[in-house]
Amino acid sequence: MDERRTWPPTREASLVRPYTLTAGRTDAKIDLPLEAPVQTLQPGLARRWPASDARGRIIELCVKSPSVAEISARLDMPVGVARVLVGDLVLSGFLRVHRTLTEQSTRDERLELIGRTLRGLKAL
């Protein structure tokens, strides 16, 4: 077994700098917790996104309602960039952010969040 593996696995470097995807912005214009599930809305599905557009990849991924953190991980994108892009898509009416837990959240809501988090971690 002479095969040498490097860790972490090497990836092709992206030629696009993260700040160019967000026009230099670092904050989302909406409150966007990392654990918040995000869902694609019909206008997002109806729009034709260029293959190289990160927003189109986010729209496709959000059909399954991943969290903001999952979007970042699955698209290999810095979490700050994912938050800004998701925020833009929410404000444009292409995505919906589901609420996360509050002080008044029920036990069932808390268990659902734990289950969703575990499923997301297993999928990664």
Describe, in plain words, how this protein is organized in 3D:
There is one protein chain. The protein has one domain: Arc Repressor Mutant, subunit A. It starts with 17 loop residues before the first helix and ends with a helix. The relative contact order is 0.19. The chain is 44% helix and 5% strand. The chain has a two-stranded antiparallel ribbon. The model has no long low-confidence stretch (mean pLDDT 81). With 124 residues, it is mainly α. Pfam families: DUF742.
Radius of gyration: 16 Å
First-to-last CA distance: 27 Å
User: Sheet bearing the most strands, described?
Assistant: 2 strands, antiparallel
Number of domains: 1
The CATH top-level class label: Mainly Alpha
Pfam families: DUF742 (PF05331)
InterPro entries: DUF742
Write the layout of secondary structure elements.
Elements: H1 18-21, E1 38-40, H2 42-46, H3 54-61, H4 68-74, H5 79-91, E2 95-97, H6 107-123
Antiparallel strand pairs: 1-2
Helix pairs in contact: 4-5
